[in-house]
Every structure is written in C-alpha cells, then in structure tokens.
C-alpha cells in the first residue's frame, strides 16, 4: 500500500511540475493559438476526455498490479515460513 501512495505522489508531482514547462503561442488577443480553434469547435473536451481516460486506465492497472504483487509476496513469505518450521 505504501507503493501506491508513493505512485500517487509521484504522479501528482509530475502533473504539477510539467505545467511549468508548457509553452503558449499567443495571438494578438492574449489567448493560446491552438486552444482557441479547438475550444471553438468543442474538440478540446474530446482530447481532455481521452487523455483522462487513458491516465485513469493506467492508474487502475498499476493499482491492481501492485495488489497482485503484494499478494504474491505475502504468499511467498508464508511458504518460506512454513518450510522453516
């Protein structure tokens, strides 16, 4: 479970720090050039939905994988303790 918290913290930090490196191309009105066209067509919401779906799927997969690995490690420890007795 500790690994899950570490993963969540790392993912959060990655999202926070990656926004600092974003570059915007501004038009004369001060709005980012790409976002204006995509927002006016409503496509930006599709892009956001797809990205969030992919990230959520990856996160759920990693949590499930961590649980399975933890269960296998616990079983291996139990078997090792049983052999020692």
Describe the 3D structure.
- This protein is mostly helical and 85 residues long.
- Helix content is 80%, strand content 0%.
- The protein contains 3 helices and no strands.
- It starts with a helix and ends with a helix.
- 0% of the residues are buried.
How is the secondary structure organized here?
Blueprint: H1 2-18, H2 33-41, H3 43-84
Q: Categorize the overall geometry.
A: elongated
Which spans have pLDDT < 50 for at least 5 consecutive residues?
none
Q: Report the helical percentage.
A: over 70%
Query: How far is it from the N-terminal to the C-terminal residue, by CA?
Result: 29 Å
What integer is the average pLDDT?
80
Kindly provide the radius of gyration, computed on alpha-carbon positions and rounded to a whole number of angstroms. 22 Å
What order do the helices and strands follow?
Answer: HHH
What share of residues are in beta strands? Answer: under 5%
Q: Tell me the number of helical segments per DSSP (H or I, 4 or more residues long).
A: 3
Report the count of strand segments. Answer: 0
Structural class label: mainly alpha
Largest beta-sheet characterization:
none
List keywords for this structure.
85 residues; 3 helices; 80% helix; elongated
Concise summary:
This protein is an all-alpha fold. Helices cover 80% and strands 0% of the residues.
